[in-house]
Amino acid sequence: MSSIESRSAPIVVVKDLNKRFEERRGMFGRTSTVVEAVSGLSFSIAAGGSVALVGESGSGKTTTARILVGLEPPTSGSVSVDGLQVTGIQGVRMRRKLAGRIQMVFQDPYVSLDPRQSVRRMLDEVLRVGTDLGPEDRKTRIGDLIESVGLPARSLTALPRELSGGQRQRAAIARALAVRPRVLVLDEAVSALDTSVQAQILNLLDELRDEFSLAYLVITHDLAVARQIADEALVMRRGEVIETGPVDDLLHSPKEPYTQALIDSIPHVGMDLSRSDHP
Amino acid sequence: MLQVRDMTVKLPRDGNMAAVVNEVSFEVGRGEFVGLVGESGSGKSMTARSLIRLLPRGAEQRGSLELDGTDVLALSRTGLRDLRATRTAMIFQDPRAHVDPLWRVHDHISEPLRQQGISRREARQRAIQLLTDVGIADPERCADSYPDQLSGGMLQRVMIAGALAVEPELLIADEPTTALDVTTQVEIMSILMELKRDRDLATLFITHDLELASVVCDRILVMYAGKIVESGAAADVFARQFHPYTHGLLRARPPLSGPRSKLEAIPGTPVSGLDAPPGCPFAPRCSWVKPECERASIELRPAAPGRESACVRIEEIADELD
User: pLDDT digits over B22-38, tens only?
Assistant: First the structure.
């Protein structure tokens, strides 16, 4: 996609990606409808760059994220992450290779963290499985990670429920960074956080991008969040990209009515709250 | 319409009772749209539930609570049932958790009417009219649908229609748009605005979104750790804050224009009233903190016409927070 220009060699390249789901309906699922969750999606992310997929539910943004990290096979198209073909990836070794390149942070850390595992055990396990580090090196890495994400050392022994929402998300970010990936997929990673905590995590993500030379794919419904941590955005609707560009250009001179509608939906002084459905 | 005075809700905690809502006082007038704004643990939802005495087991509620002259805390069981069924209505963040998936939409709306002795046929007609009122294009078809067949936005409209069926005096809307898409949020807020205008409905709108509240509400009450820390006309609060928490909350959101820079995050984590320190609960996170903030509890006091703040440094900070 020409508007998403790379400053350096792209680390993520998505070409003509399609994902079709068959939705079974009716009694015993006898009738089925085909849903085009993602159709004809192409974009790239430069090493150290940050691209946002902005859209509402059903836009295909989360499906795209899941395909990128290998959680979901695409129907057609290709995805490469740091030279590794994601599409058709099979086997433990290949998956481990992919996991070393791209990691995902989810919206709700409470669901994505094992409730019975302390932060230390969780990180140690990720390092044991995902790297060749010995026990001493793992211990050092865990200490560094905790410091990088701004968690106090005492939180290492804490269980997820003993952490606040913000701390849990910091722990989830530490887990994603443990194997030193080059790309992080942030799937609504700050949406469920309190406003005062959301700002802390957005600042943290900004710092980590520099510290670890990370590239981000930011999945969000929130244009303000996209503007804060992404350079460029793709506005998606019903599986298709309808507009792309630097976030500020999209915000200040959107070309598509849908992009404009998204902007108009952001609470602002003088917002139009008259009923359009029945005047 | 609604008058709340010094209301406290306590919950059992480590063998003691701790306040999750701490001496809150406010009013909602007929045709008024009041926002109760706070982060997690602020006690906003507990405050909302306490208005219809819908509290967890073992909770203790004190203070005074009047709905159009009725002393809610003195109500008998039948009185309370009547209050919940016909005089107030509540809509929630997740409508799906509050509907029976085996009931058709019109059953949900007409059930309370049937309870009042209205005939099946008339109740259905009223339900269809209400669905039309909340902007549902094909109300007949919607009335015969099951909740599973409707989108979140449609189902929330159904919930609003159901809430209106009993012609309540007070509508409590607890994060009604938080789980919805942004464009749907605008539609739902528009419906609520119209109801307030056309039906003179008193609405208490519970939200975590201070920006949204500033735009849609007449007045807002900002809660932190079980206490109201700032109140005033919504537009005034948005323009100028008299409490460092409110100020910090507005600053913490990423801006849509201007240079991109580090956000002014509030350090630390919001606390619940149950864990609040003595003195000002915000003191541990406040950059304006003084020794006296941590000593005694700090009450709301006038900060400007129509404005109140629970900060000891109102006078000093008013100019600087401008």
Answer: 999 999 999 999 999 99
